[in-house]
């Protein structure tokens, strides 16, 4: 199996690379690249993201053909892609961090600043929160989550949240 971590210059991706190498333990080939041909040939992709929604979208768009390659991989071929942090946020139609910015449009919805109720809650939100898994999924049963996220607790550092549109 070939897993490609898409490197589009969105900050420091070394923690993503190190995590995947630790979990994979030489069981899968992990490649870090922005080469469109290598991305097309991958079995699975990882799209990390660090910074603002706008800066990540801008970085994707600076690599000629990358957005089209990702769309082909995900939408047309229906191959798996894991978005991490802002990489996942960019799946939405639009984001409002810095300025209104068009996302990849794979998930109907928007990414907007968390309502802190006129300063009642400190932003960015930093801390551990328990999540409620409403649908059973293989990803939540994997060994990665057993070691890093016991009892559905996750660590968050965020000021923006995805608001998904359900039809």
3D architecture notes:
- It is a single chain.
- With 167 residues, this protein is α/β, with parallel strands linked by helices.
- The protein has a single domain (2-164), classed as Rossmann fold (3-Layer(aba) Sandwich).
- It contains seven helices and ten strands.
- The protein has helices at residues 14-24, 36-41, 53-62, 66-76, 86-89, 138-141, 143-148, and strands at residues 2-6, 29-33, 44-47, 81-83, 92-95, 101-102, 107-113, 125-130, 153-158, 160-164.
- The strands form three sheets. Strands 2-1-3-4 form a four-stranded parallel beta sheet. The protein has a four-stranded mixed beta sheet with strand order 6-5-7-10, covered by helices on one side. A two-stranded antiparallel ribbon has the order 8-9.
- A hairpin with a 5-residue loop joins strand 5 and strand 6.
- The longest helix is centred in the N-terminal third of the chain and has 11 residues, at 14-24.
- Mean pLDDT is 86; it is low at 143-149.
Radius of gyration: 16 Å
Approximate helicity band: 25-40%
Instruction: Let me know the number of strands.
Output: 10
The average pLDDT score comes to 86
In the CATH hierarchy, what is the superfamily? Class I glutamine amidotransferase (GATase) domain
Largest sheet: 4 strands, parallel
Question: Order of SSEs, N→C?
Answer: EHEHEHHEHEEEEHHEE
Indicate the CATH class: Alpha Beta
CATH architecture: 3-Layer(aba) Sandwich
Secondary structure category: alpha/beta
Helix tally? 7
Strand order of the largest sheet: 2-1-3-4
Q: What is the number of independent domains?
A: 1
End-to-end Cα distance, whole Å, is 35 Å
Q: Which term fits the overall shape?
A: globular
Extract low-pLDDT stretches: 143-149
